Amino acid sequence: MNKNISFKLLLAAVAAAFIAASANIINDYFDIEIDKINRPERILASGELNVRTALIIYFFFILGGTALSSLVHVQAMLVVVGSIILTFFYSYKIKKIPLLGNAVVAFMTGLAFLFGGVAVGKISAAVFPFIFAFTINFMREVVKDMEDTEGDTRANVFTFPVKYGFENAKTLLYVVGLFLLIAMLIPYLLKIFNAKYLAVIAGSVVPMLVYSMYILHKGNDRASYGRVSFLLKLQMVFGLIAILLGV
Fold first, then answer.
1. Please, are residues 58 and 22 in contact by the beta-carbon 8 Å criterion?
2. Residue 124 half-sphere exposure, CB side, CA atoms within 13 Å?
3. Which end of the chain is more exposed for a tag (fewer CB within 10 A), N or C?
4. Cα-flanking dihedrals φ and ψ of residue 70, to 5°?
5. What is the residue-wise DSSP string for 175-238?
6. pTM of the predicted protein model
């Protein structure tokens, strides 16, 4: 990897971190009242950080992320600006729409990989990491909605579990989980990734995914959904390790 590509990747990584931080801040800003019920330990909901300071930090991050991405190239800056707009409207309105809000969060997580591909001109290499990250995070967002039904119901946020019930939410997760199991095999079968990728996937991600679905099937309480959410986060980590080892 030449120095120019390395520098662009560094700029892109810092810009992505800034935008991710800004997304968390604006989401917490719009969710203060809900978080007082669901997640009272959050920094705005708990009062540890006041709203004015949070908004100043938010604008610092979006301006900084945009400026850094402009040093990569115009396409990268357009991705960042689009991300800022999307995360704002997600926090303001879209998150209240069943599944669409979940899909936007999952898309934004996967977008980090596409953004890296755009930054170095190799977007095709980022397609499978995007699909993997999108799918895992979509599942995790639905599970988190199952955790947060009490606060969401009080705030009139009609997530999929609130509107259609827990059993339908579980069925959706089983279907998406099955899709993920199949999708994880495809890069190996197409010889995009090597045997190391398959070994890590088969030895960690697949067992954790199956166990997650088992907990989901048996459990009907917030603690069970919390365990599933944590396991999905671990699967994301091990999946990325598999991809790195498999190239």
1. yes
2. 1
3. N
4. -65, -25
5. HHHHHHHHHHHHHHHTTSS-HHHHHHIIIIIHHHHHHHHHHHHH--SHHHHHHHHHHHHHHHHH
6. 0.79
Angle of the 166-189 helix axis to the 222-246 helix axis, nearest 10: 10
Q: pLDDT (tens digit, 9 = 90+) per residue, 77-135?
A: 888 899 899 889 988 888 878 888 899 889 888 887 877 777 767 777 788 888 999 99
Task: Indicate the SS3 state at residue 157.
Answer: coil
DSSP string for 108-148: HHHHHHHHHHHHHT-GGGGHHHHHHHHHHHHHHHHHHHHHT
Quote the Cα angle for 223-229-235, to 5°: 140
Q: How far apart are CA 219 and CA 230, in angstroms?
A: 15
Buried b (16+ CB within 10 A) or exposed e, 39-54: eeebebbeeeeeeeeb
Tokens, residue 130:
């995007």
The residue count of the chain comes to 247
> What is each CA distance from 157 to 91, 95, 105, 115, 139, in whole angstroms?
12, 8, 16, 31, 18
Give which of 170, 163, 183, 243 is closest to 212, Cα–Cα. 170
Residue pLDDT, tens place only, 101-113: 899 889 888 887 8
Q: How far is CA 154 from CA 65, 107, 162, in A?
A: 35, 27, 11
Question: What tokens were used for 70?
Answer: 């402009």
**How far does CA 64 lie from the centroid of its chain?**
21
